[in-house]
UniProtKB/TrEMBL annotation:
Superkingdom, natural source: Bacteria
Organism of derivation: Eremococcus coleocola ACS-139-V-Col8
Transmembrane portions of the chain: 20-43, 82-104, 116-139
Alphabetized Pfam families for the sequence: Sm_multidrug_ex
Keyword Transmembrane helix: yes
Keyword Mitochondrion (UniProt): no
Protein name: Putative small multi-drug export protein
InterPro entries: Sm_multidrug_ex
Alphabetical keyword list: Membrane, Transmembrane, Transmembrane helix
Length: 144
């Protein structure tokens, strides 16, 4: 449950430690998804609350602006396929494109709780399988 690496780093570590794949995937998915409902329901409200505070305001405003701009770009590209766009955004195994960021963008765009959670869950599962398989074969090839 560490931002930026989320389940992606955990699946690599699980492969490196030769832990069972499906058990590791299940634990990583659960760990990655635990904060998602809270992020969806409260993060946008907290950011709006803190945007005018002296110490945290600039950072909170940055997060809101980043979320709005990312959300508008996602909406412009996706149109009616916003569910699939959110799924792909979360599924792409790059830093900053995980479920936490996707959920924040979904809450700022007001995409709907159920649809956002399902898209993020599917994206997290896909990313976990992809990273798990790639890291397993990567460690096998280099003999670790």
């Amino acid at each position: 449950m560490v931002p930026l690496v989320e389940l992606r780093g955990s699946m690599i570590m699980a492969s490196g430690w030769h832990l069972p794949f499906f058990t590791s995937l299940l634990i990583c998915v659960i760990g990655n998804m635990v904060p998602i409902p809270f992020i969806y329901l409260f993060a946008h409200r907290v950011l709006l609350w803190g945007q005018d505070k002296p110490l945290i305001g600039p950072f909170f405003r940055f997060c809101i602006e980043k979320g709005h701009s990312g959300g508008r770009k996602l909406e412009a590209k996706a149109g009616k396929g916003i569910f699939w766009a959110l799924f792909l955004f979360v599924a792409i195994p790059l830093p900053g494109t995980g479920a936490w960021t996707g959920t924040l963008a979904a809450s700022i765009l007001d995409l709907g709780f159920k649809k956002s959670i399902i898209a993020c869950l599917c994206g997290v599962i896909f990313a976990g399988i992809l990273i798990g398989v790639l890291s397993h074969f990567g460690f096998s090839v280099i003999g670790i």
